[in-house]
Here is the input.
Amino acid sequence: MKLQPTSNDPRRLFLEQTRKALVSALTQGLAGEAVACQSSCIAGPRAGVVLLQVGVAAAKVLRLLSGDNAAIARQFIAWNFPGDPAVFMSGKLIRIEAPWPDALAQTQIRYRDVSHHPVGDGRWVAGLNERGTTIVLGFSDNVPHLLMGGTTGSGKTVALRNAAAQLSHQAGETALVALDGKYGAGLGILSNLPGMVGPVASDVRQATNALGWVHTELQRRYGLITAQGEAAIAHLPRIVVLFDEFQEFMEDPHVRELTRRLLAQGRAARIHAILATQHPTVEAFGENGSLKRNLVGRLALRVTDQDASRVVVGDSLPRADRLMGRGDAYAIIPGHIHRVQLLLVDEAELQLLPREEPRLRAWPEVRPADYGQEPTVHWAYNGSELAWGLIGATQMPPWGRQRLLQALEAAGLERPGSERADRLLELTRETAAVLSEAHYQLLSAESPVADEINQQELLLGMVAAANDWGRQRLRQAFEGAGLAVPGSERADRIVDLGEAALASLTQSGYRLVPHTEDETPDGNEPYDPAEVAKALIAAFNGWGRDAFVKTMAPIGNERGMQLLRFARQIRDRLAEENYQIQKTESEPE
Ligand SMILES: Nc1ncnc2c1ncn2[C@@H]1O[C@H](COP(=O)(O)OP(=O)(O)O)[C@@H](O)[C@H]1O
Ligand SMILES: [Mg+2]
Here is the structure.
């Protein structure tokens, strides 16, 4: 059902009286001269609007009507509205807007009451504008983020909940991160909605960690874009960060810095924020406010005074301090201002939504150094995870995600979400490949080595399987690579294993492709697999930093040390599992 004012709508009759009185007063010289005008009116959910087109007299009429609450003008017209009108230019029209008396106001508009435009791609139905048209909000290059400001009770939390509830139905396309400056009282009810990346962050520490995760993801996406172009992230979900009463956590320098980066850099990475606050201050958002530039999209709810209004609206008009509260809002998108009655979503409705475990059961810890001004050094994984990843990567066939998860759980480690696990697989497989190129091999002290098929053999087996080589061709390849030519039974086993490994790679979305050019290391992946592999070699050989650094391209002292320390952790952990890295015997000339 679409709510549309009809001609016998009592609000419309009410509004018509005012319009006629105004037009006749202007025609009769209320503005000092006779002003001819065209007029129309709109009966919105919370306010009535009269639009006047008066041509060159616009400035004069505007001054007359907006000066001192239009007290003078109102003596001459029947002004039945409670409270003051808002008078401003809307394009070439003078717009006179006044709230309905309570009995006429329409304050409870539900999702089911509005006509449903096709939404998706991170967009949601926000409410109805003054013409009864459904207003959809979302993100674009022009509007990468939204600032929402309004006093207590104005409807910020309800608006955020509405956005989250609808976006949770687009879980594949949109991922949600919720932070709540009111310690969970506002957004806590959103926990475990489909699409939520992790828990609702309800204190400063969790907020820092959640924003840290967002920042890591942002860097990862920039890395993908640098390496492969923008198309590389087109299929990744938009990430929408909902931050209620964010001023509560902005005292914290880390939250502030991470929020600043999210606003400044999120756009290109398809990462967006809706920031809601009851204290829109000039310091944070005014002319020189560092956050202002990236917050062009505004949702201004009722604020307490004109100063706050100027900050939230980004202009002196329209005046958000004249809004009526409880979801009465201006939605301000470049080029458009709508007076919107926002949808009402109550807790009972939210309780009915489906729920599922978020991808992350806890936000990974971030430390300030992880996003300092220095080149960032970020270990998304701890040493134990990397050790198990490496063990899995060197099994034959290499472990897939499922097997890796089992191993991590069996080792008493926290079970990572699927995306995290996939990235771990990817990282450690690359590391294993680099190790093997450098002729190192991960050996288990428990399994007999002699008969084991080694990495290089397995790789050739995979190539053989991919190319359907016969035994003869395989032998040649072994000779070419300087490897001992296997007997026929062993050759068959190598090809079988190669086939299995290939299948498992394919299943995990990998392909075996001929090596054509040097890969450029991902500029934003803090350590590349080659560095990790070299550090591991250094750790296993007991080298000090100097010997280690000699094997590397120039690397800063601190970064080098950090890398080496980390590699030692991995080594120790591997040793606990009875693994060690050894140089292989069969080294080609
Ligand atoms: N869109 C809306 N439509 C109708 N009533 C609303 C709407 N938004 C808020 N309200 C009313 O105002 C109350 C306070 O809203 P809330 O979102 O908690 O405000 P805030 O977070 O700005 O303090 C709600 O409990 C509800 O009764
Ligand atoms: Mg609130």
